[in-house]
Design a protein that fits this description.
Order of helices and strands: EEEEHEH
Structural class: alpha+beta
Radius of gyration: 14 Å
Number of domains: 1
Number of helices: 2
Distance between the termini: 19 Å
Strand content: 15-25%
Mean pLDDT: 89
Strand order of the largest sheet: 1-2-3
Low-confidence stretches: none
Number of strands: 5
Shape: globular
Helix content: 10-25%
């Protein structure tokens, strides 16, 4: 797996905060975020099952620009950032 680091949540301690990577080989976003609690998981379950091998994570709105950059990196890998 070749991960390319895109960014970290702004205004954080840089130790335990959300991060975003792009897997250039698989063309996937890789996200680190806060684990959902049972209440949030209960809210998402009506839209479909949540298998044991999947997780719901929370990503703060202040990272929207980083997620956009990661999406652009996957869609346009020829553009070096």
């Amino acid at each position: 797996m070749t991960l390319r680091f895109i960014g970290i949540a702004p205004d954080t301690d840089e130790k335990n905060c959300p991060r975003v990577w792009v897997d250039d080989e698989k063309k996937e976003l890789v996200l680190q975020g806060w684990k959902a609690d049972q209440a949030l998981e209960s809210e998402v379950r009506p839209t479909g099952p949540l298998p044991d091998y999947e997780a719901v994570v929370r990503i703060p709105a202040r990272m929207v620009h980083i997620l956009r950059e990661a999406c652009d990196a996957i869609e346009h890998p020829d553009i070096v950032r």
